[in-house]
Amino acid sequence: MSADGRTIGILISGRGSNMQAILDAVRQGELEAQVGIVLSNVATAAGLSRAKEAGVPTTVIDHKSFSSREEFDRAIVDELKKREVDVVCLAGFMRLLSSLFVRAFPGRILNIHPSLLPAFPGLNAQRQALEHGVKVSGCTVHIVDEELDHGPIVLQTAVPVREDDTKETLSSRILEEEHRAYPRAVRLLLDRRSPSPSGRGLG
């Protein structure tokens, strides 16, 4: 772990818009932390360029180079631990984590999902919400455990579903809320893990 206990590792597979929201919150002083590494399994992920522009170290570990999910995850865990990462943020990382990964950072992996979990886990959550006719959807930041889109909820934000919403329009409004919610949830988790002035943890 880092000396101050507030170093973040971010995992991406694509454009990294939630990664950017975290980087912006750090730069603006809204999130008292540092991003130690942005790691992707896709060499062409647009988010890598955005991270480099922000002066954040980046690494690519191609999952296709490994014979098993566990071997791939072990390589990522080794890289994150080398960077003394305290909290891991999944930001559009399109790989399921193995038990090996989850157990390496117990209670310290965050994921953001475009629904109000436990409703609509898995892929196409926005489409699921529209097909079920719900009036409210939103996003959830939760601690990752060994089940898909499961684990303790850190923060949820509601987004009304409009009569004329399409998957694209609903997704866009939920994404705006994700960009606000994710940095807040990271701060909540880091503050919870940081020692209090008396030297006792916050639980």
Mean pLDDT: 92
What kind of sheet is the major sheet? 7 strands, mixed
Low-confidence stretches: 195-203
How many strand elements?
A: 7
Q: Portion of residues in helices?
A: 25-40%
CATH top level is: Alpha Beta
Bulk shape: globular
Output the strand order for the largest sheet.
3-2-1-4-5-6-7
CATH superfamily: Formyl transferase, N-terminal domain
Question: Strand percentage, roughly?
Answer: 15-25%
Q: List the helices and strands in order.
A: EHEHEHEHEHEEH
CA radius of gyration is: 17 Å
User: DSSP helix count?
Assistant: 6
CATH architecture: 3-Layer(aba) Sandwich
What is the CA-CA span between the terminal residues?
18 Å
SS-derived structural category: alpha/beta
Structure characterization notes:
- With 203 residues, this protein is an alpha/beta fold.
- It has a single domain, classed as Formyl transferase, N-terminal domain (Rossmann fold), CATH 3.40.50.
- It has 6 helices and 7 strands, in the order βαβαβαβαβαββα.
- The protein has a 7-stranded mixed sheet with strand order 3-2-1-4-5-6-7.
- α4 links the parallel β4 and β5.
- α1 crosses α6.
- The two termini are 18 Å apart.
- The C terminus is likely disordered.
Compile the SSE list and pairings:
Layout: E1 7-12, H1 17-27, E2 34-40, H2 46-53, E3 58-60, H3 69-82, E4 87-90, H4 99-104, E5 109-113, H5 125-132, E6 136-143, E7 153-160, H6 167-193
Parallel strand pairs: 1-2, 1-4, 2-3, 4-5
Antiparallel strand pairs: 5-6, 6-7
Helix pairs in contact: 1-6
Q: Can I get a quick summary?
A:
The protein has 203 residues and is of the alpha/beta class. The chain contains six helices and seven strands, in the order E-H-E-H-E-H-E-H-E-H-E-E-H.
